[in-house]
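Note to self: keep these together.
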Amino acid sequence: MPAPRPPAAERAAAVRQLFAEEARAERPDLATLCLLVGASADGALDDAGIDSVQVELDRLAGQVPYRPGGPAAWAGALRQLLGERFEFRGSSGDYQRLESSLLHEVLRRRRGLPILLSVVWMEVARRAGAPVYGVALPGHFVVGFGAGEEQVLADPFDGGRVLAGGDAEVLVAGATGASLEPGMLVPAAPLEVVSRVLNNVRAWAAARPERSDVALWAVELALVLPSHAARLRYERAQLLVQRGDFLTGAAELDAYAEVVAVVDEPAADRVRGQAQSARAMLN
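Structure:
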């Protein structure tokens, strides 16, 4: 089944504006942001579809036992509901699918990347009243319940398996070769989560040059986040040139060169050269 296609330009611009407004809200809503990412990827996801996903999350939350107990009990309740009863989990093949990074598709397929499955866990648990948050371990996103010594970690990619003993250390070492540090276990803010989702989308598109359309909308959403790397402007410029918008891409390259010139004039000159080459493609 082919990956979804982005919406028409007018709808894409409207979704991007809604995403920017939500990202700059006092308390950005994680589910809303992830659904707007989905609407940027999938032209079939309209406003009614977005509302239906929110309703489904509410429905799942309504099936969580009422206040089951402490962090361990919450983690167990979510594992039994989402991991066992509804069989949400992931596999290696999910890394090859764009749908694995789209919340509406993860809810439909009950499959996805660790971070999107964690979003499902967080949103269902939050609606049910759980003390839940995301934990952005290097290379593998999980969820946490409770704080301090009571903290319990669960891995939605593995059906909600509760991490015991050195399990988290093994995950980090397996993904990056690094050691687990206490700072890795702090709650991830919604914008951090969404930024990581967009990074995953960009990585998926980078391996598929024919899907520069996906790379472009992902980088454009990342650029409207309150905090983003300046190099994203360079990435956007390159994508525009790649897609045949030579003048706009060249203008973006020139603008990026001005930023780079402050710290690295030779690098800025190279970028200006790329802008000149882009304009020459019009001849």
